[in-house]
Amino acid sequence: MFKPGRLLTPFLLAVLAGCGTAPQSRVLEPLPELVTQPSAPKTNPPPPVAVQPLPPPPAPAPPTNPPAAPPAETWISLTGWAARHGFDSIHRTALQPPTFTLSTNRNRLVIAAGSQQARWDGTEILLGFPPRWAGGDLLVHSLDARKTLEPLLDPPPPRAGTNRVIVLDPGHGGMDTGAKSAADGRFEKQFTLDWARRLAPLLTAEGWTVFLTRTNDVEVPLAGRVAFAERHKADLFVSLHFNSAYPHLDLCGLETYLLTPAGMPSNLTRGYGDDPSQTYPNNAFDAENLHLALRLHQALRAVNGSPDRGVRHARFLGVLRGQNRPAVLLEGGYLSNPQEARQIADPRYRQKLAEAVARALE
Prior knowledge:
alpha+beta; Aminopeptidase; Copper Amine Oxidase, Chain A, domain 1; 2 domains; eight-stranded mixed β-sheet; five-stranded antiparallel β-sheet; globular
């Protein structure tokens, strides 16, 4: 779970809040390993998975790249940028705040002055910098254009040598319980593990080799989860969580997190340092992270039914920073919201979450 942070200014009927992960603590017992190998589609359930002991993880390594010089603050015309990138039309759809809708034959972008909240094909994507209105034109920051808008228009090609290995990371475990359900008092750690166990055989049936960072109620350090993915040469890393904003009970909906690109401020900090000049290993996958996050978030939205809380950037998430592969963190709903907590407590909902992730990764 993530604890609540400063709320962002609403745009297009969305209300934003923060979330985070619980602090690290010691490992209570050795970490078991779950391995599922790809198999051909079949009508019967996949065979039981094999659990093997795993050696203790190595100490976490510091960021491999030195801090980069902060880029010059550059603002560019949205109209000019749209013309250069193949948008068929650009229309002003609201006067205050100045709001524009841009369209291609495949995509639709809605963006407004003063708001970090944009919408891409109906899904909320948070920008690093609120666009500015100046001289009768909407200006967007060059980093948002380069790190968010342009990758959405032009998806990166698959990296060579991929072998379809995925690590699923059920959040929390052991004494690190995560959030408490407002519906039945159970803890986030139980729901995340159940989600991962439902998802693993679905991905195996689609040809993935699947590893879980934990297969039972044990506490795993964040650095150990990163090292686990590295040892298994994972192609993707997906961390599974449920959210909480306690004592605020009204917040609900899905959030998906990826590492903040260098030079850009995070959408959420929770009071942690947020140095835009720092580059982490996972920043090599900024474009892939965005596309992975968008695919998964769109698939989960079809299941959740609550207001969209968006695809967001954060830099304090230690489980993402050191990854040498595309990596995202999913928040499958708010356990602090009584209605959504009842939904999460229903095994049928968690099964739908698993099926949505599997569809997005087909």
